[in-house]
Amino acid sequence: MPPSTERKPVRRRTRQRPGDRIFAGASTGAGILILVVLAGVAAFLLVEAWPALVASDEQIPGDGGLVVFVWPLLFGTLISATFALVVAAPLAVAIALFITHYAPRRVAQTLGYLIDLLAAVPSIIYGLWGFTVLAPATVGPTGWLSENLGFIPLFQGPPSATGRTMLVAVIVLAVMILPIITAVVREAFRQTPRLHEEASLALGATRWEMIRMAVLPFGRSSIVGASMLGLGRALGETMAVAIVLSVSGGVSFNLIGSSNPSTIAANIALDFPESTGIEVNALIASGLVLFAITLLVNMAARAVINRRRNFSGAN
């Protein structure tokens, strides 16, 4: 047979424009810079916390060792942030659904602006609101909870006479993280493929059935990511918790009593100006623990989101 005269197509390398190369380099540099800053923060915390990590138990504040010093603070941080997330996440999803699928356009636009405006309020304002308004208003309801639901450890009592309880701190944190979760979930619900919604309605589904079968599954990863983002904000909140919470130390699940554990961030803000020597290192060690917890939360959120990244409106 005669040899083939067909020529193989020549691949031409696409020539990059200078603007593309500059933008690609700037983006890569920004990503590397974030990693460098993160590694620098971790290294700083580890170096400054090292004297407390190797110190004897008698040198650490409280004379119980570093674990005894950090554990109540870690417990208070986790319990306040977790309960705040439990309160805020369902409410944020409900608000996002109302804005995107139920409310008229003008109402939805106004409500969206108001929800986003909550994120611009300084945390110290939330703390003052919780201290002056919310805490006195919860004295009566916490007494009722103690009398009628005292068999539950969360409402065991006796209730605080001032209202500066972990319950108030949880409510304040929930209000603070509400706009963050709502904004992310709202945008995810708006990106739900229109064909999925119309197909569900065409098959006879009600609006709620359409939301349950099309909207919520599509936005599931965004709900998880937004919740973890709000949890990270709640874990690191400082001034609002420091103003609201009446701290007495210890570990307790009681949300309405006067014996409340502090949080790591609030404890650092309150004790750091008056601390010296090994006390400063112990506070930085607690900050290292908070840094690790926040990093683990973000990594878990990223893992959940990556499991759903291949899901799109076409499959």
TrEMBL record:
The keyword Transmembrane applies. The chain crosses the membrane at residues 21-46, 66-99, 111-129, 166-185, 238-257, 280-301. The keyword Cell membrane applies. PROSITE patterns: ABC_TM1 (PS50928). GO terms for biological process: phosphate ion transport. InterPro entries: MetI-like (IPR000515), MetI-like_sf (IPR035906), Phosphate_PstC (IPR011864), Phosphate_Transport_Permease (IPR051124). GO terms for cellular component: plasma membrane. This is Phosphate transport system permease protein. It comes from Amycolatopsis marina.
